[in-house]
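User: Teach me something about this protein's shape.
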Amino acid sequence: METRIAVMGIIVEDDQSVEALNDILHQYRKHIIGRMGIPYPQKQVCVISIAVDAPQNIISALSGKIGRLRGISIKTAYSGVKREEQE
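Assistant: First, the predicted structure itself:
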């Protein structure tokens, strides 16, 4: 199955949604290459970037679930290269 590399930029503005966000990320952990979280207390937000390698439909599902959380914004940037998934 073809996979794509993508980077998701997430802004968390509502701390009450963090547990739900972490639950979703845990569900998709096998597709996550890396994660970086940067708290920004001066603006009362947290900035998170997630690198993933997954089929297009998985990336879209993950992005959609995160985007429906209250107080969380997400944007996804995709690589132009599709790769065959390796076992």
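Now, about its shape. The helical segments are 18-27, 56-67. The beta strands are 2-12, 32-40, 45-54, 72-84. If you'd like, I can walk through any region in more detail.
User: That's plenty for now, thanks!
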